[in-house]
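Give me C-alpha cells for this 278-residue protein.
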Amino acid sequence: MYNEKKKVYGYYVFGESVSEAIEVCDAGSEECAPSHDYGPAVRNYCLMHFVKSGKGVFAVGGKEYRLEKNTAFLIRPGASAYYRADENNPWHYVWLGFRGVEAEKLVAAALGDGNVFEVPAELIYELELVIKTCTDMTDMAYALTGLVYKILGRIRSERTVKSKRPDIVKSATRFIEYNYFRPFDVTRLAGELGMSRAHFTTVFTAAMGVSPYNYLTRYRISKAESLLKSDGDLSITEVAYSVGFSSIERFSEMFKKYVGVSPLCYKKDGAPPAPTAQ
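Here you go.
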C-alpha cells in the first residue's frame, strides 16, 4: 500500500508467523521529508533501516552516527534510539523488523555489539522489491523471513572477511614471494586463498593501496632487475621465464613500463637516471 502524501510504500504487520526462529513484524520503504525524525523511543523487536539514498543521523547508546547511501542501522529490543533525515538531502530508507527465539542470537553473530554497518545496494533493492510487488501476505512473510537470514548472513560474512584481512594479505604476499617464478595470475592467487578474483582484489587493494596485479607485476620486475644486474650471462628470455613471465614480449612491455627502459638497455646500461628536482 502506497501513501503518496507521506511517500511511504507499504507498512506491514504480520499476525501469522511462518517461523518461530524468525518472525517478521513489519517492513516498508519511505522517502523521508527534510528533517523528518522519530524518537527517542524503544522497540520490543529488532529493527533495521537500510539507506537507499540521501543522508541522516542515527543516535543510540549516547553515540551519534551520520549515515548515507548503502549503510544501515539496527535498533535492538529495549534500546532507546533516535533518527532524523538530513535537512538538505533527506534519506530514502527501507526497513525490516523481526523478532523470534533466534533473532537476537543471529544479530549478535552478524554484528557483535555494533549498531551500524554497510550493506550491498543489491540487498536493499531486493528487499524493497519484495515490499512493493508481493501481494500475498503469507508469500511476503516467507520472502522477508528468508531475507532476514540472507542479510544477516551477508553481514556476518563481510565482518569475518574484514577481521581476516591481515591474514589474507599476508598469505597473498607470502605466496607471491615463494612462487613468483611460476606462471600464475591473480585469478589463480585468489583461488589459492579460496576467494573470487573480484573480492580478493577489493580486500588486497584496501589493505595495500595497490592492486594485487600491480603488486605481483612489480615484484616480478624487481626480481628481474636483480637478475639482470647480478648475472650478465642470462639472456632476456631466461630472465623473463625465471620471474614468471611466459611471453618475452609481455615481459619486455611490463619491464619498460615499470623501469623506464627495455630489459636489454637495462642489462647494458643499468637503470635510467632519476629525474632531477626542478
